[in-house]
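Entry 12.
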Amino acid sequence: MNILGYADKFSVMQNGSIEFKVSCQNIKKYNAALLKIVQGDINDKGPGYKEIKLKDNLGGP
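Predicted 3D structure (tokens):
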């Protein structure tokens, strides 16, 4: 199974737009979700990782 995806921008401002590109080999269907990373620190002594799943449906083929 090979899947490769990327966004055309690293981040966007509110109401901005971003495009996602996905390429698949030997995959007929995939699901994608958009997450907002609120806190990316996974260090045990840090505040901990936190993400929020956004309501946008990215779908798939």
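Annotation: The CA atoms of residues 1 and 26 lie 6 Å apart. The longest strand covers residues 50-59.
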